[in-house]
Design a protein that fits this description.
Order of helices and strands: EEEEEHEEEHHHH
Distance between the termini: 112 Å
Number of domains: 2
Strand content: 15-25%
Number of helices: 5
Shape: rod-shaped
Radius of gyration: 35 Å
Number of strands: 8
Largest sheet: 8 strands, mixed
Length: about 250
């Protein structure tokens, strides 16, 4: 199964890797929503997931704020999705939602602390992640199953395609999506690595500055101690001279 990942900023702007669990249109609200996980385990052995509102058209979407009552209503719809996903025979039985395919969409994300959070079990999370009621639908005619994601030799095949040819096309499509996801993941990891390296360099420079300042303070302290010793010596000399002067005056 292909996993869609997103980079969600936290309150400090640091990017977190999120796994998209599902996305759906709430039919009663006529709005789109996204559900994702940051793999956060809570003390009660549940997993925290996030629900957020999607806005946009075509393949460009963005995560937006929504009124609490809208997110609460969407959470009720999500319960219907979970009920169908966790059934012994996972299939859509409710008309309150319509699942969406975001595999080719560009999504602009907002900070995680602005999103609605819920807690579910690991089993429910996995059921939601793998929930695909469309896979149980009747197959379309072979001509309509052809897509532009296949290789040129596959896209030119006519209605006389055999079942084996269709499988090859699906494998090629899946392989290309896997490659795209891997490239995206590698790019994300590389970006994080560069950010961490930059922070390490700045931290190292800061540490060196602190060490230099500490050395300067030590040198100043030694100089002050030496000056103090010199002053004490001068005071002792003055006292000795004063005693000699007093002795001369007494005579």
């Amino acid at each position: 199964m292909l996993l869609r990942t997103l980079e969600i900023p936290d309150a400090q702007g640091q990017l977190l890797n999120a796994v998209v669990l599902c996305s759906f249109t709430a039919t009663s609200l006529n709005r789109q929503f996204l559900v994702y996980s940051l793999n956060e385990k809570s003390g009660d052995e549940l997993v925290r997931i996030y629900l957020t509102y999607l806005e946009g058209e075509d393949q460009r979407l963005r995560v937006c704020d929504a009124p609490p009552e809208t997110l609460t209503a969407a959470a009720q719809v999500l319960k219907d999705v979970l009920r169908d996903a966790c059934a012994s025979d996972p299939r859509q039985t409710e008309d309150t939602y319509a699942l969406m395919d975001l595999s080719d969409s560009v999504i602009e994300c907002s900070p995680v602390d602005t999103h609605y959070s819920l807690k579910i079990s690991d089993a429910w999370l996995m059921s939601l992640l793998h929930y695909d009621p469309q896979s149980k639908a009747s197959p379309l005619p072979l001509q309509s199953q052809q897509t532009g994601n296949c290789s040129p030799t596959a896209t030119r095949v006519t209605s006389s395609l055999t079942g084996a040819s269709v499988k090859i096309c699906d494998v090629q499509t899946t392989s290309s999506k896997i490659d795209a996801n891997l490239k995206s993941l590698v790019a994300s990891i590389t970006n994080h690595k560069e950010i961490l390296l930059g922070k390490y360099v700045r931290l190292d420079e800061r540490q060196r500055e602190l060490e230099q300042r500490e050395q300067q303070l030590v040198i100043r302290e030694l100089a002050l101690n030496q000056r103090e010793d010199e002053l004490m010596t001068s005071i002792s000399s003055l006292r000795a001279a004063e005693m000699q002067l007093d002795a001369l005056l007494d005579n």
